[in-house]
């Protein structure tokens, strides 16, 4: 309990510190580290998810049409609500936690355990500036970009491949999609994915900088804790957003008074 | 103003250790154990004392320093030590320029000039050397990279800790030139070599 409270307090302090130090991205090594992070999180992850994201859209449309016996409008509506608003950002967050979150936690923990963070302090380099700010900012940008990429692929894949499975043409489905699409959908998922990126990177940096012990054995423990807590944070943020936007939580058990 | 660049004392394993070094020269400090040496190096580079320690740097007792003054003091001090190792995910050039690029001083052209001079003085080919990661550098090359970083920082007080550690006889003669290289560039600064010299019983 005490450790959990300490972690929440430490995580909040780290988050506030990072938010207040974003200006240090102008410094050359911090900017370079930020760009590396964007490349690692956004660009290298993008190739992995292409087919899976396209398949996701097809599956959603096919299942909706088949199970719910829905028409093209309902199928596209569900594609928009489920894929665009919910699964897109969540899928991107899962990719980021597994690929980047674990890497950040391990890298920072190794630096901490091997004394490299101490060396940075001796060089008068602020750890937040050099280690945390570029990672958090980089992961935020990359998560938002990855989310948009997955959404685009899933929606396009769903619209393009569904005519082979269900009785609806691509133009019909696309027409319905653009009728129902509003900028709020895009804004909602962008804000959510930026928050996902922030919480994942901040959580992983926090655990990397605070290993339970200063030996190599601490690294796997740090990674496990960082990945688990990042996933919990993402699910919590997602639930809060769902509550704010749709007014319900836990399958309708908690309902907002509108 | 005190004529001392460094004065350090500490109770260590029941005995008092006290060392001092004058300003502006080259001094060699011998500590009785690796732990006491590590304590001295950490205190100097942090410009901060642990309980039971007393440290005066460049004429100022560090215990009395406020956080901003401590930060300023730390910028006047730099070291070559295992405690200030190279970042494993950066190549030699990135490691050498890291602090200068972060603080924005000195300019990159000056950094490149100093680095080239140092590497040439030690017979290293810059292009191949600078692209390598620390894991691909041997002990001497890592010390030279750290020494180049020290010269770029141009501190008022430079600390070289365990100069000969991990080096063979031939390499030791090469690092002995650190002193002349440093004096040539920083004639007014203080250079302190810190070594362990275990005292014999009796």
> Which spans of chain A of ≥5 residues are poorly predicted at pLDDT below 50?
none
Oligomer: heterodimer
- Strand content of chain B is 15-25%
How is the biggest beta sheet of chain A arranged? 2 strands, antiparallel
What is the CATH class of chain B? Answer: Alpha Beta
SS-based structural class of chain B? alpha/beta
The biggest beta sheet of chain B reads: 4 strands, antiparallel
Number of helix segments of chain A? 8
**H and E order of chain A:** HHHHHHHHEE
Mean pLDDT of chain B equals 92
The rounded Rg of chain A comes to 20 Å
Note down, in words, how this protein is organized.
The complex is a heterodimer of chains A (258) and B (202). Chain A is mainly α. Chain A is 81% helix and 2% strand. Chain A has helices spanning 2-20, 28-67, 72-113, 116-122, 127-161, 170-180, 183-209, 218-246; strands at 248-249, 254-255. In chain A, strand 1 and strand 2 form a beta hairpin. Chain A starts with a helix and ends with a strand. By secondary structure, chain B is of the alpha/beta class. Chain B has a single domain, classed as P-loop containing nucleotide triphosphate hydrolases (Rossmann fold). Chain B has helices spanning 34-46, 67-75, 92-103, 108-121, 126-130, 139-153, 169-175, 178-185, and strands at residues 4-12, 15-22, 26-31, 53-57, 60-61, 77-80, 157-161, 190-196. In chain B, a hairpin with a 2-residue loop joins strand 1 (4-12) and strand 2. In chain B, helix 3 packs antiparallel against helix 4. The longest helix of chain B has 15 residues, at 139-153. The model of chain B has no long low-confidence stretch (mean pLDDT 92).
């Amino acid at each position: 309990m005490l450790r959990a409270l300490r972690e929440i307090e430490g995580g909040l302090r780290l988050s506030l510190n990072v938010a207040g130090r974003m200006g240090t991205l102008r410094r050359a090594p911090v900017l370079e580290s930020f760009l590396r992070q964007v490349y690692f999180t956004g660009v290298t992850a993008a190739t992995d998810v292409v087919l899976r994201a396209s398949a996701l859209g097809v599956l959603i449309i096919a299942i909706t049409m088949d199970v719910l016996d829905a028409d093209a409008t309902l199928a596209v509506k569900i594609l928009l609500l489920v894929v665009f608003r919910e699964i897109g950002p969540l899928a991107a967050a899962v990719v980021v936690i597994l690929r980047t979150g674990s890497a950040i936690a391990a890298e920072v923990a190794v630096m901490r355990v091997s004394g490299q963070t101490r060396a940075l302090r001796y060089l008068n380099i602020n750890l937040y500036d050099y280690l945390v700010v570029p990672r958090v900012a980089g992961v935020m940008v990359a998560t938002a970009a990855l989310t948009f990429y997955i959404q685009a692929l899933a929606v396009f894949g769903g619209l393009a491949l569904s005519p082979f499975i269900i009785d609806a043409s691509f133009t019909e489905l696309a027409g319905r999609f653009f009728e129902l699409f509003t900028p709020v959908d895009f804004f909602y998922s962008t804000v959510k994915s930026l928050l996902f990126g922030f919480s994942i990177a901040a959580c992983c940096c926090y655990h990397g900088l605070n290993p339970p012990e200063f030996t190599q054995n601490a690294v796997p423990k740090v990674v496990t804790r960082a990945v688990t807590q990042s996933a919990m944070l993402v699910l919590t943020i997602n639930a809060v957003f769902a509550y704010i936007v749709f007014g319900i939580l836990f399958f309708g058990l908690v309902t907002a008074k509108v | 103003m005190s004529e001392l660049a460094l004065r350090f004392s500490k109770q260590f394993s029941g005995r008092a250790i006290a060392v001092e070094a004058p300003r502006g020269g080259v001094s060699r400090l011998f500590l009785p154990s690796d732990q006491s040496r590590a304590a001295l190096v950490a205190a100097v580079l942090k410009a901060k004392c642990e309980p039971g320690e007393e440290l005066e740097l460049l004429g100022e007792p560090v215990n009395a320093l406020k956080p901003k003054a401590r930060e300023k003091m730390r910028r006047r001090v730099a070291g070559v030590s295992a405690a200030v190792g190279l970042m494993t995910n950066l190549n030699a050039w990135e490691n050498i320029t890291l602090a200068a690029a972060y603080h924005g001083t000195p300019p990159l052209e000056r950094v490149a000039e100093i680095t080239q001079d140092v590497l040439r003085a030690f017979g290293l080919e810059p292009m191949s050397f600078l692209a390598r990661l620390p894991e691909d550098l041997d002990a001497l090359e890592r010390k030279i990279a750290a020494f180049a970083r020290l010269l770029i920082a141009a501190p008022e007080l430079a600390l070289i800790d365990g100069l000969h550690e991990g080096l063979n006889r031939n390499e030791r003669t090469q690092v002995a030139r650190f002193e002349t290289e440093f004096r040539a560039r920083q004639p007014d600064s203080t250079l302190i070599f810190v070594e362990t010299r275990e005292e014999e019983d009796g």
